Amino acid sequence: MLSKIVKSGLTRRTFLQSTAAAAAASSLPRMALAQDKVIKIGFLAPLTGAVAAWGKPGLDGCEIWAERVNAAGGIKLSDGDYMVEFVGYDNEYDPAKARTGATKLIREDGVSFIMMLGGDTWPGVQPVADKTGMLFSTLLPSDLSPDTTTLIAPAEVHPIYNVTGVEWLAENKPELKTAVMCAQDDALGLPSVATYLAAFEAAGIEMLDEPLLFDPATTDFAPVVTKLIAGNPDIVCLDTCYSDYVHPIAEQLFQQGFKGQIISCTADFYDQMISKTSEEFMEGFVFQFPDFDDPALNADNINFSDPNGFYAEFNKRFPGQWGAVSWEYASIMDLWKAAAEKAGSAEPDAVITAMKDGQGKHAFGDADWWGEELFGIDNALVGDWPVVAIEGGKATIKEFRNIPAWYEKHGDLLVKHMQAYDQMWNQRG
Amino acid sequence: MLDLLAQTGLNAVYAASYISLIAVGLVLIFGVMGVINFAHGELYMAGAYSVVLFYSDFELPFMIAVAAGLLFVGCLGLLMERTLFRPLKDNPLGGLVASIGFLMIMQALASMGFGVRMEHIPPVTQHVIEFSERVRLPMARLFVIIAAVVLLSALWIFLKKTRFGWALRAAAQDPEAAALQGISINQTARIAMFIGAGLAGIAGALTAPLVSVNPHMGHSVIVTAFIVIIVGGVGSLEGAVIASVVYAIVHTFVTTFFDGVIADITGLSLMLLVLIVKPTGLFGSADRA
């Protein structure tokens, strides 16, 4: 190659001078970048596989969040301003891979905080958390226990918020008297089953059958749906099924002629469900995750910066990818940033102390650190949660309801059903 | 109750149809080439993605997308035969290991090409045949049932009535004797691979609008197919079809009358029972077991 360049008329000295100049020039941006101090945040969630819908859109949302924060001057700590950078690791919803990822993020990338989906992957990571004292977050407070002192659940109180949907249904559609439920048999499905059972019992809605559990490897949902609707229930509850299950189950309900109410924790990509069924069939479908262009999110009590703009930017960059978690990890970062700035430090101990000092600014309003009775530790930030229904083909927030208020009245039922499914913190392996 | 039994029966017929298409292809490849193709589920996945590409993205008619899936996956089978299985045919475990590698490559290619999340495929038809208010058969499922019956009948005729079919069966029974009779073992392997892969591809293509299409969708299918061919007898086409029907009936009815987790346990128990009582499977012969 060098001989070809020399033959083209370029002298060896000119070539070396040019190369040196180019090398010096190419190093300039790096030197400039090095002047910015950077805080790295780990993103340890499924980015591929069946659960990727609850990981990848969250990382996409975080990138938008980081751009906004960095453009506004970054995170202001006692020793200066820091740019924020996310380091993603795909744990494929596998505990062993999650453990490897946590170790890599801490040792090699030097992250200050790690966000996770949690669930089946948390047991793999917990020894790393215990050993390093790293601050982790989960979307699933069912991961919490008295031992998980550096694990917080500041965005989503899955599955406890599901009670708000059932409570709203019971008040607004009192003619619905009976229900059935199906769920995948895993760490996401089972605590949610217990929660829905408690919510239905509290609402006076009769369960026609035991919850129908299916293997997460299920591909054909016709037999599941046939059983679900055999007793002509008023309500079919899809629990916290993954979107890969919610879609074919909803389609089967449509094809097998179900005409009642559907309630689900999530309805990710509900426009596709409408396309596979009909707008009429999906009308009134109740779930728990709003689109962030909803006008109700512009209220003063909402602690998420410019939700409508965030939603528009997300959809511009990732058309059709908006889902339940698109905003959640970003909202956790809002809390973390506020706590780090309050503490003046990104050290895990300082951040968690600052974070738990008083009420927390949850995305859906001010909330309390809660959960000792249910999780053995007050590390879940719990307050209001929206009830969402599909109306005219569009997700619409119907109401915000308070989770601790429900728990105050019906907590014993929740504990009873959690115990029946071995989902209390002192029962989980 | 009668409605519930009838609807469950229809569900079982559909399940038996697509499982038998996949299992027969797997058995054909094993029978002729002696290779356990772990990538068979990914051939099913490739058929489904053909529909995503040609039907969803290019908006071609569904049946053209299905035909394209059959041809594409059949050609993938030829590629596997030529580049993986033939060079490794003297290595007893070579084909198996190579197919596991091919499986991973296929999953990675699907992830890179289409992304990791479930693909949306518009419904081919929303028409439903209503036998009663609670007994309904969607047309999309009927297509799969008809296709399975037609294709498996055509395969049976091909194997029993044509010279190529005789050659395939001869090569499966005794490759050396078949070669001495002038039958090209390489050619029969190519035919078996094209047909076996094509059957998986068409199963994936036909069921694509009815399932979640994602890069990992082949996993659960291959587990079911292995259970079926072990129950039916490794190497037996008739056994694969009958075991598919038995497995589909058992799994579907247990799911409906108990639950899906118990159905999986029952399916595996059925396999264990057959292995204990008749280790060669219901229709298998000792030399292939």
From TrEMBL, chain A:
Keywords: Amino-acid transport, Signal, Transport
Gene3D superfamilies per the UniProt record, alphabetical: 3.40.50.2300
An example Gene Ontology biological process: amino acid transport
Keyword Signal assigned: yes
Superkingdom as given in the UniProt entry: Bacteria
InterPro entries in alphabetical order: BCAA_transport, Leu-bd, Leu_Ile_Val-bd, Peripla_BP_I, TAT_signal
Leucine-binding protein domain boundaries: 39-393
Pfam families listed in its UniProt record: Peripla_BP_6
Family from the record: Belongs to the leucine-binding protein family.
PANTHER family assigned to the protein according to its UniProt record, in alphabetical order: LEUCINE-SPECIFIC-BINDING PROTEIN, PERIPLASMIC BINDING PROTEIN OF ABC TRANSPORTER FOR NATURAL AMINO ACIDS
Protein name: Amino acid/amide ABC transporter substrate-binding protein, HAAT family
Automatic annotation (TrEMBL), chain B:
Subcellular localization(s) per the UniProt record: Cell membrane
Broad class of the protein's primary localization: membrane
PANTHER family: ABC TRANSPORTER PERMEASE PROTEIN, BRANCHED-CHAIN AMINO ACID TRANSPORT SYSTEM PERMEASE PROTEIN LIVH
Protein source organism: Roseovarius marisflavi
One cellular component (GO) term of this entry: plasma membrane
Membrane topology term: Multi-pass membrane protein
Transmembrane spans: 12-40, 60-80, 92-114, 139-159, 191-211, 223-250, 257-277
Keywords: Amino-acid transport, Cell membrane, Membrane, Transmembrane, Transmembrane helix, Transport
Family: Belongs to the binding-protein-dependent transport system permease family. LivHM subfamily.
Protein name: Amino acid/amide ABC transporter membrane protein 1, HAAT family
GO BP: any one term: amino acid transport
Recorded GO MF terms: transmembrane transporter activity
InterPro entries for the chain: ABC_transp_permease (IPR001851), BCAA_transport_permease (IPR052157)
Name of a matching Pfam family: BPD_transp_2
